[in-house]
UniProtKB/TrEMBL annotation:
<protein>
    <recommendedName>
        <fullName>L-Fucosyltransferase</fullName>
    </recommendedName>
</protein>
<keyword id="KW-0328">Glycosyltransferase</keyword>
<dbReference type="Pfam" id="PF01531">
    <property type="entry name" value="Glyco_transf_11"/>
</dbReference>
<dbReference type="GO" id="GO:0016020">
    <property type="term" value="C:membrane"/>
</dbReference>
<dbReference type="GO" id="GO:0005975">
    <property type="term" value="P:carbohydrate metabolic process"/>
</dbReference>
<dbReference type="GO" id="GO:0008107">
    <property type="term" value="F:galactoside 2-alpha-L-fucosyltransferase activity"/>
</dbReference>
<dbReference type="InterPro" id="IPR002516">
    <property type="entry name" value="Glyco_trans_11"/>
</dbReference>
<keyword id="KW-0808">Transferase</keyword>
């Protein structure tokens, strides 16, 4: 029975404060499609996706073309239950991250493949200028997808 169990993939979507600060780039819709396809194409079992996001971003996430697939659901959102959101991501087989350390930790704790957006840092922003090396932020076994690959 376990061999037939669907592969669970968590997708962490964070927008809000990081976008408002103007020092991060949010992944385009094509990033999520490419990341989802990468995992699906490498799996011999059915794949299900669960989107974990903040309550203020749920309507945005629901409206995204990449998330209009039948094998995708949204984690319940409520009073900012961060522990529950982290537990959901950590219990997944693989994780697709967007921005921020919350998704990073969810991916790390999952122990599976983690896909991250390579172009998330605005490297010319004064906050990041001369301070960011992707190799310092993401383990080498993680899979980065850049805008040029979409």
């Amino acid at each position: 029975p376990d061999a037939e169990r669907a592969v669970r993939v968590g997708i962490h979507v964070r927008r809000g404060d990081l976008l408002a600060e103007g020092r991060m780039n949010f992944p385009p819709d094509g990033y999520f499609r490419a990341a989802m396809e990468r995992i699906t194409s490498r799996s011999s079992r059915p794949v299900v996706f669960v989107v974990v996001t903040e309550p203020e971003d749920i309507q945005w996430a629901i409206s995204q073309q990449a998330f209009q697939v039948p094998n995708l659901g949204f984690a319940p959102t409520g009073a900012g239950e961060a522990a529950m959101d982290l537990a959901i991501l950590a219990s997944c087989d693989h994780v697709i991250t967007s921005l921020g350390t919350f998704g990073w930790w969810g991916g790390y704790l999952s122990g599976g493949t983690v896909i991250y957006y390579k172009d998330q840092f605005q490297l010319d922003h004064p906050f990041h200028l001369g301070k960011i090396l992707l190799s310092d932020h993401f383990p080498e076994e993680w899979v980065g997808i850049s805008d040029g690959e979409l």
